Amino acid sequence: MSDSVTVRFLDRTTAPHVSTLIFVAGLSALAMNIFLPSLNDMAEYFDADYGLLQLSVALYLAVNAGLQMLIGPISDRFGRRPIILGGCVIFLLATLGCLFATSAFTFLAFRMCQSCVAVAMVLSRAAVRDMYTADKAASMIGYVTMGMAVVPMIGPVIGGLLGQAFGWHASFWLLFVLGVLTVGLVYLDFGETAKKSTKSLVAQFRDYPELLTSPRFWGYSLACGFSSGSFFAYLGGAPFVGNEVYGLNPAQLGLSFGAPAIGYFSGNFVTARFAVRYGINRMVFWGSLIICLGVALALLLSTIGIDSALTFFGCMILVGLGNGMCIPNATAGALSVRPHLAGTASGLSGAIMLGGGAALSALAGAMLTPGSGASPLLWIMLGTSALGFASILLVIFRERQLGL
């Protein structure tokens, strides 16, 4: 592991090119939110309650979280490349199931199967950690997620426009086509980055206590989980707020929905440029604080009556900025606590993040009712972002105790 690795694009005997990592991780991000502006149309198509279709986010995240706990140890045992290829093929089959579903429950079942694309997110991060040292890994993860930020920024916009022009199926056909391209790109370019473990799978899972008993691993993972939790709550509640509170149509909601990704792109750029210079702890500290300030500002404006789609979604840019600084650095920190368990750590920290995200997404959807306004969502986001800030303070305190 070093700060310099051999990379040749479309040469599977070398480590993957950064563009491949961006594309692979981007598919996972796109699958999460591209169809959200069309939830109302989907509810009408399946003759189902809006709240039931809204579970497509929470269930996706919940299954995704469970899979991440398995993906890490399995990839440490068998390698990153075969696991990514297998997960993406299952994603393709599940996407076809979503397209041809005849009921809301069938759709949700295939939607949960789509979460196999979690391999893309987990193992693109683990591959970076395989290739680079800790601070350099944070910088490289920042570059990967900075490029990836374009996907959630334009995903809802594209989904909203496709939904308005061709119906909700169009978003899933786009996911299928991009999934086929991803499988081809991984096959041609993604050279193995992990030194395969000689341990059995049972022994791999026995390594979990080594991570679970590390206060620093928990601190980084919870900082990442709670900070990103504010965004996952946003995913669960923003479609309702946009539709019911501010009366936006699918195209307008798609354009507005991408506001956090503008900040996320900027935050990842800051990470990519300055993580090595200032260290991951400072980056997570300031990122967590910015998230708190962004949500608090939105809540203040709502409380004093300055409440509109512009103020609500505008403040979400700060939430994205903070997440762009927090997530890649906290992830690199969690993966660096036990470098020999990078895949396991990536899966476990991702499970913590997405498991909490699933719960917060469902909670936001349940708390928002006609007449409630955006306040319940903002209070949830403020509480989780404050816990994220407290978590990185725990890490800093722990490192001072250890003299690191």
Describe the structure.
Helices cover 81% and strands 0% of the residues. By secondary structure, the chain is mostly helical. The protein has a single domain (18-192, 200-402), classed as Up-down Bundle (Growth Hormone, Chain: A). Helix 11 (215-245) packs parallel to helix 16 (342-367). The longest helix has 33 residues, at 134-166. The chain is globular and about 55 Å long. It starts with 17 loop residues before the first helix and ends with a helix. The mean pLDDT is 82.
Structural class call reads: mainly alpha
Residue fraction in strands: under 5%
Shape: globular
Mean pLDDT rating: 82
What's the β-strand tally?
A: 0
Q: What is the radius of gyration?
A: 20 Å
